[in-house]
Write a structure and sequence with these properties.
One of its GO terms (molecular function) is DNA binding. This is Transcriptional regulator. InterPro entries: ArsR-like_HTH, Tscrpt_reg_Rrf2, WH-like_DNA-bd_sf, WH_DNA-bd_sf. By secondary structure, this protein is mainly alpha-helical. The protein has six helices and two strands. A two-stranded antiparallel ribbon has the order 1-2. 19% of the residues are buried.
Amino acid sequence: MKFTKATNYALHTMLALIDNSPVKPIGVQQLAEIQGVSPTYLSKILTRLVKAGMIESVSGVNGGYRLSRKKDDITFLDIIQAIEGNASLFECNFVHGEECLIQAVMKEAEEKMESHLKNTKLTDMVQKKT
């Protein structure tokens, strides 16, 4: 199983915003430089995070991005789903009538992973850094 690079950048971006919260907004250029990614690519990721209601865009000379939710409420799962969506990781391609036994195992594993990601907040990572 592998998440896209966009998810990697989104998680790191959110960590930077949480670490900086509630100080002034951080510009896309600065966020991109921190991660070594193009500002254009990061802008697309930031747009998804804005649409998911986790961050907001602030216009003006001192503009940029900042959290729009309480930092203690943001989980790994929130960010991953904002970027990847919430479709199941495994879909059985065979018609078995009853639920596929393989599908059942995969679904259970996915539920456990989602539970872990839902219960892990980015603020936990900030606390580990200090």
